[in-house]
């Protein structure tokens, strides 16, 4: 069977879940991975040292998988923890065993852990290391794992989700409308990967590599961690369907090749191409 397989991290909710549905709509069977397999599970998503947060969040891999199947595509839900190398390997191995090699890798997941929103004075080495392991080393390992197969088949796409925090300076400290050094520097480091891959595989025209910067997206995690209140005055925000539509467009449209090896600002491109009906909504003054 000529199956096209997309592997997405952080797909229990937010951008990852929306990307799974957008790719399903474009004919992909989807491997959805994250920590939360079933509804109601609790995992620590506290982002400051000494302030764990075990409140359950909406969304789960089972829910995302069910929504993919409702669109007529197949879904494989696999638990994956970015801080657990064995779970990374197990997820890719299970994918290849059940379905075959990965055609599209979407590195969307990030770690929500102590240190993400801590001030520099409060950082400890252990927390910084965890953030780099989850946000840089884990997605790098996934790239290294699936890339040889893509090269052998002469085609494949890797989409890495980056962050404005890794590109610009904050206007305020973390917790007051800004962001922490450990998180932003990890995303800055990760953002360099796509350009390097494009250079290293310049003689493989069937491979495409993209950074996608989503902008401020109103996700379940953003609401639960108080980030919506902190950043709403700076940015209007967009739903997860906006970056998801851009990811699906880049993966499936030949015109997306223009962005190979570059960073795509999702909200700007989505608006330009009109990828999400009704978005952006008119501002009150324009209504």
Task: Give the topology.
Layout: E1 5-9, H1 14-25, E2 29-34, H2 61-70, E3 75-79, H3 85-98, E4 104-107, H4 125-153, E5 156-161, H5 181-190, H6 193-200, E6 207-213, H7 220-224, H8 227-231, H9 241-252, E7 263-265, H10 266-273
Parallel strand pairs: 1-2, 1-4, 2-3, 4-5, 5-6, 6-7
Range of helix content: 25-40%
- Radius of gyration, taken over Cα atoms and rounded to an integer in Å: 18 Å
Shape: globular
Q: What is the H level of CATH, i.e. the homologous superfamily? A: NAD(P)-binding Rossmann-like Domain
Overall CATH class:
Alpha Beta
Distance between the termini: 49 Å
- The helix-and-strand class reads alpha/beta
CATH architecture: 3-Layer(aba) Sandwich
Q: How much strand?
A: 5-15%
User: How many separate domains make up the residues?
Assistant: 1
Please give the order of strands in the largest beta sheet. Answer: 3-2-1-4-5-6-7
CATH topology: Rossmann fold
Major beta-sheet overview: 7 strands, parallel
Number of strands: 7
How many helices? The count is 10
Low-confidence stretches: none
Order of helices and strands: EHEHEHEHEHHEHHHEH
Give average pLDDT, whole number: 92
